[in-house]
């Protein structure tokens, strides 16, 4: 059975690495073959569906969505980047706070929020996004490995270890992961100065869309002017008027409740303005609608329905002075799609942007996240129950709607994680884990430092060719087996593996954050390798220097 399992596992990993077969399909086929061959029971192979780690990951995705929905990450990022002049200053200001945040919530949505922020910084200050995105993405990956809930692989390791009687707490990973993260951040900062140099290419764009953004009393912009907030001018938009009670006021006047900020913008600029948390906009989606009416009138006539707001139109005139022409595209906001379906002037429509951020819910969302972290830290209940309660609280408190909470769940990733756990079950039940652990012990000749080096390097190589979940699922039972064979502390071996699994710096396809920044940063695979090698070597050296003495002490 061990040989057959090895063939199935290797074939599955090759299929997942090649990209020719969807990862979830490769995993399902592997589990079905293993079930038919009798390697494990169906209940065991598909136990990932009920695994506490998978449940926790799903709940944390909802909690992360709730925090991000308030726009707090965007606001904090803007303040951090205010006044920076170089990429070095940007990294020094961004990496520590973003690293802290990424140790508490999933790194992927954080990176997603940073992409538009770095683009805006490039337009405003000329600092190339290329010199910022990849370093910050790698920094968040390193920081995420410091806590139990910071990365999915740690949750998988903890879930599988608990079934073997080994318990990992909220901060079990800190002793190894924290020094590695600090050393890695230094390597990132130094390497970026030499390997990611370049100049921002800023092209002038035609600002053809008139955009009118109303300011509510809940807006964080009230009492400050547009220049202070960084919303006066970029490549994508430019403030041309501030309307107050129907009259124009000076552009640098402090913004007040009820003001309408008028911009000329690109189509992308319209979306950027809408998704900014600075205006306190209503929690409505932005829609691009096509006018169908032949009736004489103006763009303003679209607002006959009080539940519809015209946000932008392709014109240089006021909306009331712009004719309502059939076929014209207009951006509008409304709380209900039924308004668009029943509107006499609307032909076709489609979603243009999600709901505007809701700053008023910021403290509620942060309070829920803090409560989850504190409860998990003190072990007040199983972490999956704590995280699940936090996710439910995001909905009950109104931070998220039930539909938004469901949309926060990335079912493809959750299915891959659950399927990967099945691979770990196969390794355990077939006895393959024992053979692998025996091979590692024999390869290291019983030498503790050599064994630590083999595990660290092997984990790093595996995580760069397959998903983090697959690496964690395969290596967790192996580490526990080695710990029992050599009378070592299994927790220390597991946190070494959890830390090294974050070294996904050599392959852009090994981590979701890598893929997200690849196009915006204009990176190639060669750039990933050149930039990733020194960071990986520093991470490995630090992990070895920290883990070996700890294992020797507890031996």
From TrEMBL:
Topology with respect to the bilayer: Multi-pass membrane protein
Localization per record: Membrane
Key words, A-Z: Membrane, Repeat, Transmembrane, Transmembrane helix, Transport
Transmembrane segments: 25-46, 53-74, 94-115, 136-161, 173-196, 362-379, 413-436, 448-479, 491-511, 531-554
Superkingdom per UniProt: Bacteria
Domain Citrate transporter-like positions: 15-498
InterPro entries: Cit_transptr-like_dom, DASS-Related_Transporters
This protein's name: SLC13 family permease
Organism: Gordonia caeni
Lineage: Bacteria, Bacillati, Actinomycetota, Actinomycetes, Mycobacteriales
